[in-house]
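Session log. Operator J.P. requested a structure for one protein chain; no other inputs attached. Running the standard single-chain path with token output.
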Amino acid sequence: MPSIQKSLEPPSLAKDMSGAALRFFDACAGIGCFHHGMAKAGFTCVGAAELDERLQKEYPKAFKLESSRMFGDLHGITEKEEWKSVREEMKGCVLTAGFPCQPFSKSGTQLGKEHAEGTVFGSLIEVMDDLECPAFILENVENLTGERHGETFEEMKQILRGLNYDIAYDKYSPDQVGIPQHRQRWFIIGVKRADGSYGSENEALLEAMNQVVFSKESKNELDFNSDILPRDSRTGTAISDTEKHALILWDQYLSWLVENPDLGKTPSPLWGMELEDKYDIDAIQSSLHSRSGKKIRMRTIKATFSNGAGKYRKLEDTITKNLPPYLWDLVTRKEPYPDWKPRYIKNSRAHMMKIKAWLIVESRESEWNAWSSKLMAQDATFQKFEWHVREPPAESKSLDDTTRVKKRFKGRLIQFRPSGVRVSKGIRHPALVAIGQVPVVGHWLKRPNWKTLAKLQSIPDDFVKNNKRLFGDSSESGNSGEPIKRLGNAVNVHLVSVIASVVRAELSPAGDD
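Structure written below.
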């Protein structure tokens, strides 16, 4: 096998053992991140497929691909006349695909192969067989091997081995190759056996992939603040008034922790709806234990409250009026809650009651009452807070809300998630995902422009500048949601190029000329 350094050098035109140029077919092409990565590794594109009709038009323009080599739906593609007309010229290429993740993603339906898009894998197999692909590179979400999809993944591996491929797979993230984004995804590579025998899960191939990913030569070593974020904050998207109000409220909470370090660190998560001890979580747990799989009784639930919950006649009313959303399933629940949930509840209560008691001693109970009243008026997602930073919050005493909040959250990234307001270190971007959730840059109180986020997928700046229509941006400001969705569905270019170097080395073991 060629050395790591040799395999990482991007030749202008890589060749296989016969001297022919190494080529690839970009299935599930999207905005072309696999294309960029494969080209960087020395491969030439011979065709692509993408279900999105607009991208079918824009992709060939952006990558100078003949329109006859751009295909749509992969289902039944090998039987279509337009495919057959160019098939011979594409044979022997490597197949790449970040096939649809929705069937397997935790944020999707998780229907696996039962999902309409879950059957794309079968179409990819047909393409690989029809084009006699000597190798492939596939990518999918971390949950591909989750408990609900383990059997499906085993079937996929059996099919690939049955097509005579030695395969290797592991989870990799851009931050492992020096890109400041944590986004773990499964990469599956396969190389066809020359003797036509049944393939295996090849340890040597896996070792080669891990070796090249974790080598010093593959590191880009980009700094999030200096290399990714632009200096001009005006290119970002300002947060909404609702989001800003939520940050002002949590800033007040953080100011108390700065003022009195004896209050301790904020528990993470901190569930603000536990401001008052209105129900007995231990009694609820005990009742669920004692019911042995039966629904809990209405009078049992009412007995756990200390705020007159008995006035509600219906069980559903009692629960929704007196319990936080994360306990509303008590109506139908038959088993006790997992241990972590009562622990979060108790930790949140204890911490906030400690703050309240301190303010009362300081004759500042009115501060607490005003804060708690405003917090409970917020949407439930804004009532939860996660401080994912080891360091304590910074001191900020400005009387101006905006100035004070910017200083408090300087150097931090803030996400408004269904699970709450999450604050993290501003040195690594969380995973770009198609559903949005782009973090707010603390000292801007703005979300980065999509062109900035494109850097997190290692897309060349010039390409982004000259191909806005590919990303779905029709404005100079570039703050529309479609580019974010496209980037969230994409794969990291640099990570693809690093993994592609392994495949290139396998197909041209003597080294590239």
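Operator note: Confidence is low (pLDDT under 50) at residues 1-6, 102-118.
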